[in-house]
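This section describes the prediction task in plain terms. A model, or a person checking by hand, is given the sequence of a single protein chain and must write out its three-dimensional structure as a string of tokens. No templates, partner chains or ligands are provided. The sample shown here is typical of the held-out split.
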Amino acid sequence: MAVAAAKLDVVEFVTAEANDALSIAGTSYSMLSGPTCASVSEHDNITFTTPNSLTNALGFEICNVVKSDGGGLAITSGSSVSLLRTVVSENRASSRGGAIFVTRDADVRLVQCVVEGNTATISGGGAYVDESAFAVLASDFQDNTVTSEKATAIYLASGTFQATAFALNGTIEGPFVEMNARCGSSCAPGYYSDLCSAVSGASKCVVNCGACTACPVGKASAEAGATSVDTCKDCSTGRAAPDQASTECVTCRSGTFAALSLNDTDGIGVVSGAAACARCPVGYHLDTPASTACITCPAGTLSNENRTNCDKCPAGTFSGIASSGCVDCEAGKYIDVRGSSVCLSCSLFGEGVFSAAGAVDCDECIAGYYRDPISGVCINCPTSLICQDKPGQALPAPKTGFWLDTTDSSYFSRSKFMVYDCLRLTCQGLTQLQHGGPCWSPNNITNQAFCSRDRLMCKTGSTGYLCGSCVQGYSYSTSSLACESCADGHLGGTIVYYLSTSAFAVFALMVYFDRLHIPKFAQTWWIVELLAPIVGTVRFLNRASFKIMMSTYQIIQSVTINLNVDFPYPYSTFLWCLNNIPLLTFDVLSFECYFEHSSYFYGVYIISLLPIVILAIIGFVAVARHLIAPSVQANARDSFAALFLSSLMLPPVSRKLLSSLNCVYFPHSNESLLSDDTSISCNSDSYARFKVFAVMILVIYLSVPLVWAVGTLLTTRSTTERYSFLLPTTDVVASTPKFLKLTAKSPSAACYLF
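The expected answer:
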């Protein structure tokens, strides 16, 4: 049977006549299929001639064929044949290749084929190969024979032979076996099988290999069909095989070194056989690939994240050689450059200088010091201020009773720093807890919207320099020495206090001048007991004792004006009571609650002009009485009233006028403010006009003693003769109501006479 159609893709063997031979001559066939054993008779075989290609002979059977060369198959003349799952059995060759004969540049591959029970007379019971390539994969050559006993399995005259997973029962021989025969296992690259058997006559061939084993870590093999662990080679220097069954070793990149394990942390690897590319530990680096040992980072540096370089430590930190991290400078030390191995002490900058941990500059001060915002020098905290209780940059804050200007942080510098004593009890001061707030820093202290001076240092209702002024709706109280709300009853209480004390003074004067007459219906025992001490005390006062009392009062009252001293309790309370007797001071009047604008000026106007108006009224009445009904006694009484009023009003009014001329100078801001009300500038035009008035009125009041002295010198009669009618006489005592006489002599009244 001859098949010569070049375009025939499938050749099916269904029937074949006896003595017919299948001769395939063409260029390309994709498949040869179908059984032939039952119908192909003796002396017939399959012959491939001329260059052609058979890519797949599937499920093909060639058996019981007798031929001279190639009992079952004859493949010649550059043919390329691949047989898959093909059985070639019970064939005979009278010369060579009992089953398969391959010659003249043919290329034959057997995959999962069985070649068994074939016989050749001269050589190659299973196959004969000459000048061709013959490959066997996962195929069996079993029970093939040769009469001459040369190569019962395969005879390799010339060409090449390769076999993988080759099951063999027989021998491989021929002149080119040692040179061109390559036999191995079925293992893929990265695996090997060391359970193979050697082929007799072909030392380079092994057969009957067992299961494949993966190359261990640190080794790699790119060879397929390996039959020994020796094919798994150690990785060379700087390379590693981290996984089993590696086909090649990888080069360790920069920042890693060839090591036996990823957990290797000493930075020293191995020269060969590395199982991992471990990252250099912290403090080490590698800037080149394929390295076996890491390099230490010098002092002042730290390895970067990839360990490819050593970066300088940032300012404020330092490190040693191969350091595991950049360490912050401890508190009290600093470093202002990168890449340092040491920190410098803040004591280099002077006393009290400090820094927080990790500082790049000594910009803080120790407890009890504060930092000059201009020069940066640490200054010892004055006793009137509160300084930080721990190192920091907080500016000093005033204690209770002190005030400082915070409108400019430069005011805290040594050259401009001024702490002022408050003139009132309106400066609240700060505690250490309050001092820790955000306002007391050079950046925030000048933010008057958030950190205003009033909110930081003044009590509620107080404002301005020294907290020496009251905001609208508040008035200064001489009882609390602070600003109190007009809506809290402060004004009403002041009026009641003033009227009640004034009423008592009028009552005392009526008793003194015998103008007190108690109706009979009111002369009960409890009224007698209540009035007896008062009447008795007033009756026994003469002009000399009154003058002594007034002079003593004025001297004691002037102590708080002339001496800036904080007296201890209870003497301070005693002085406060003297300073707040309504008849002797006008400070209890809350003019701020009456006038919204210029209340201080209005108050001084009223206080200074009211006594003058009263004296004018007394003088007018005296002149009118003298013109209408002249009387020596009346003139004497009018003179005494004028003398009494002038001597009573002179100290408080003079004090008020003098205090209205007292200004406080603030050198840091070059301002001069009124001490009684620091909202008033002594340099303003309105104050200049007021000052003219105050000086004029003050001259008038200070001339009162001079007027009385001149009047006394001009008097020709003695004071005793002229005013004898004013002294207590026997007639006056006799005219005293009986119940008052008895009471005045009683022990209870005597207690008050002292």
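For orientation: The CA atoms of residues 614 and 645 lie 9 Å apart.
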